[in-house]
Amino acid sequence: MQAQVSIIMGSTSDLPVMKKAADFLNDLEIPFEINALSAHRTPSQVEEFAKNAENRGVKVIIAAAGMAAHLPGVIASMVKIPVIGVPINASLDGLDALLAIVQMPPGIPVATVGINGAQNAGILAAQIIATGDAALAQKVADFKESLKDKIVKANQDLKEVKYKFKTN
After folding, report:
1. Which end of the chain has fewer beta carbons closer than 10 Å to its terminal beta carbon, N or C?
2. Would you call 69 exposed, middle or buried from its count of C-beta atoms within 10 A (0-12, 13-18, 19+)?
3. How far apart are CA 118 and CA 20, in angstroms?
4. Residue 21 CB burial class (10 angstroms; 0-12, 13-18, ≥19)
């Protein structure tokens, strides 16, 4: 099956974070691919990937990077499809990566999730694709409903917590 989402990371050390996006896409049965490409160490491969992504059927790219975090912006500069940036906490608590990804120049947007927010990137990719896929839109809606159910259950469990001291 042809990948609809491409997960790209600057280094395989980002895989433990990015696995959350892959797991979400897998749960919703959205075909994806995952690769390590570096804007600094493999620039020609990044360019080849970006220029061919849409022709290969990719609808959304999730690009993760830490530190200088140029990968999402470099890819966004070469494609017409949405790019979602995931800042990785590699240094400075990930703030350097967050700022590098979110502060893109006019005309080169990168949708940016929170630091290490790969699951949200997967959810956003699914929502983007779901705009043209009613069955996927229902899966996303079901997922969102399950979030509500988790909070309702958590509140029920909290009712069991009892204070061990008296209050006046």
Report:
1. C
2. buried
3. 6
4. buried
Contact 31, 3 (CB under 8 A): yes
Cα torsion 14, 16, 20, 22: sign: positive
pTM of the predicted model as reported, rounded to 2 decimal places: 0.91
Spatial CB neighbours of 31, under 8 Å, sequence gap ≥ 6: 1, 2, 3, 4, 5, 25
For residue range 49-70, what is the model confidence (pLDDT) as tens digits?
999 999 999 999 999 999 989 9
Quick one: tokens of 44? 């020609």
- Mean pLDDT throughout 83-89? 98
CA distance linking residue 98 with residue 107, whole number of Å: 19
**Confidence at residue 167, expressed as pLDDT on a 0 to 100 scale:** 64
What tokens were used for 167?
């209050």
pLDDT 10s digits, 102-116: 999 999 999 999 999
Task: Please list the helix, strand and coil fractions of the chain in percent, rounded to the nearest 5, in that order.
Answer: 50, 15, 35
